[in-house]
Amino acid sequence: MKIIIMGCGRVGGRLAGLLEEAGHDVAVLDMDPYSFRWLPANFKGKALVGDGTDEEVLRKVGIEEADAFVSSTQGDNRNVMAAQIAKHTFNVPKVVSRIYDPLREEMYHELGLETISPTKVSAQILLDVILGKGA
């Protein structure tokens, strides 16, 4: 699969490495070139400085051939905007967006976006550990 990740922080960098290790063609976008330090040292995919809400940048990174798009920046609004562009403008088959705010995450999910809220996931894991249900 050809996968584009917007946001190369700890999560984006780790995900890029795992996907490439699994044999996928991975491209990573970030507005800060220093962020690419989170990529594995042996990363052979594409790393492009640019804004994932800019259609020209998305074309340059290969969105028109992408099988999946992940928006994983620190900004919920940018993540949602980029996910909508990938899904509705470029018809990327699989689009996932990280949304920190649980209320926003639920709203965007109800509007048809595939979303993940690390806030909700982390809280559930902590609850399970506190209540002895494992981790």
Give structural notes.
There is one protein chain. The protein is an alpha/beta fold. The protein has one domain: NAD(P)-binding Rossmann-like Domain (Rossmann fold). 41% of the residues lie in helices and 20% in strands. It contains 5 helices and 6 strands; from the N terminus they run E-H-E-E-H-E-H-E-H-E-H. The chain has helices spanning 10-21, 55-61, 76-89, 102-110, 118-130, and strands spanning 2-6, 25-30, 46-49, 68-71, 94-98, 114-116. It has a 6-stranded parallel sheet, with helices on both faces. It is globular. The protein starts with a strand and ends in a 5-residue tail after the last helix. The model has no long low-confidence stretch (mean pLDDT 95).
Task: List its salient traits.
single chain; 5 helices; Rossmann fold; six-stranded parallel β-sheet; 135 residues; alpha/beta
Topology:
Layout: E1 2-6, H1 10-21, E2 25-30, E3 46-49, H2 55-61, E4 68-71, H3 76-89, E5 94-98, H4 102-110, E6 114-116, H5 118-130
Parallel strand pairs: 1-2, 1-4, 2-3, 4-5, 5-6
